[in-house]
Amino acid sequence: MPHLTPPRQLPDAAAGADPDAVADPDTTAAPDGTAVTGPAEPDGPDTSATPDGPGAAPSGRPGWFGWRRRSPRAARAVRVGTSLLAAALVLVVLLVPNRLDWITVQSFLRLPVEAILLAALLLALPPRPRRTTAAALGVFLGLSAVLKCLDMGFRQTLARPFDLVFDWVLLSDAADWTKDSFGRSGELFAVIGVIVLVVVVLAVSALATVRLAGELARHRPVAVRTTLVLGIVWVICFTLGVQFGGVTFATKGYAQYLSNRVQYVRDGLGDADVYKKEMAVDAFARTPPDRLLTGLRGKDVMLTFIESYGRVAIDDPAMAPQIDATLRAGDARLRSAGFSSRSGWLRSPVTGAGSWLAHSTFLSGTWVKNQQRYRSLTTGDRATLTSYFRRTGAWRTVGIVPGVRKSWPEGRYFGLDHIYDSTHLGYRGPYFSWTPVPDQFSLEAFQKLEHGKKNRDPVMAEIILASSHNPWSPIAHMIDWKDLGDGKVFYRIKKEGTDPTEVWKSAERVRTEYRKAIQYSLDSLTQWVQRYGDKNTVLVFLGDHQPVPTVTGGSTSRDVPVTIVARDPKVLDRVAGWGWTEGLKPAHDAPEWSMDKFRDRFMTAYGPAR
Questions:
Q1: Which residues are CB-neighbours of 483 under 8 A, at least 6 positions away?
Q2: Residue numbers of the domain that contains 323
Q3: Residue 40: inside a domain, yes or no?
Q4: What is the pLDDT of residues 346-368, one digit of tens each?
Q5: CB 391 within 8 A of CB 287
């Protein structure tokens, strides 16, 4: 027959308890031998109820291999330490901002009302619901911690928080970027690491709140008094607006964060209807084809995007001298070939990444700020600038898209007769991190495949240059156009380049490589115009968005340069009233338009003369 511990048995001195202690119905022996005042809680993490009724001392679980009994002081230290760590974890999740640049020591020297309410809730619940509720709230806190980390990452790349409605598709793009930048093994390690980290965060946060619930139950009288006092202190400090070091002490920041996220989701879910109404408004939808773009008939028009070519490249003091020199050299090149240019600013809907949203905004004349709008646009019937060129019947419309490496069904929406992706440009050289084809080769391929053909119709080309795409390491450099061949020459050039894992250890090096990549793209474009341009060439080139905050230094500007280049003076005369700056560099005070306004202004300027 199994031996049962007698009721109200005195603690065993050999187990580490005080042999002179007298058992008390309101005193419970903890496993480490310490006395805890108050009624025993059957769900406390370090006690176990006996079948002998109230007033019985717990059996005292021995811990791993009996170490608690052998080392009661160590056991107590571990219990206190883990409880403190659990409390610290919960406070960090509640207090940490969702932006890296907002994290300071003062951020954590505050009193969150959510912690007080959490303690009050757990104290009010009976034992079993308390444990379940604590675990559920812990998982919720863990999820919010993961969301804050996503916000931090997205702000570092896109200068905005993670969109719970539309941004999940971007996670696969991030995995592709990791593979292209650091190889298949790098992608695999990153994905596995992220999954493991998320599981660990959820598990640890759940264990932390369960641990705190047990401690609150074990020390209930003290916990109730402390919670009440902290609640009163919070109300007083919040009412008086008490601050320490310029930071409000009594905060409800976590609740406000959750409220903002809920509103963000609601706005996202309602945005589809708003955008459908915007797409339906098109000033040129009923214009006859023979009255579209009449001012450009007979011209070869190139609508060219330079990846990440943002205002920072021109305005930042650390980059401006070199970029200025590149733009001056480009101006001289173009003038020597008889070309003139005008430049201004456009405000992109995105920053850091999301090039396809900027391209769609520029071409459709609508504000494509998220993935849902992009899908609505590309599955709808709104005409784009490229499709209007095609509608006239006066141009062959083509796309040079070296960044596309897999099926791109949306390409048909943009009204292109033919699309040349990375596999159809004749390139046999290496990738440069994310970049499949160097810009100089992409432009040379356009010359061979379309522009250089004899007895052809005028061409309208959408060209998306990719060499200045993040991570800007390694990057190509200009070589003699006659030496491009099939691109294998770039194996040697890549080998001479930098290592992205080393470059990204230093923000200064990242900025330097970014600047060099922009210079390479600009040189490729202006040299191509000088080499192959003629009296019928019209080039419109612009940046799609600003680079990541590592380069912009936290700037909130979304401006990108835009330039029109032509040899025929009549082409630039049509935009003389725009107030744009002469040359490739827009003046600081040059007109700044929202990018979605360009399409209609362009089509109006090059429509029938009024």
A1: 489
A2: 289-344+374-536+552-558+573-582
A3: no
A4: 999 999 988 999 999 999 999 99
A5: no
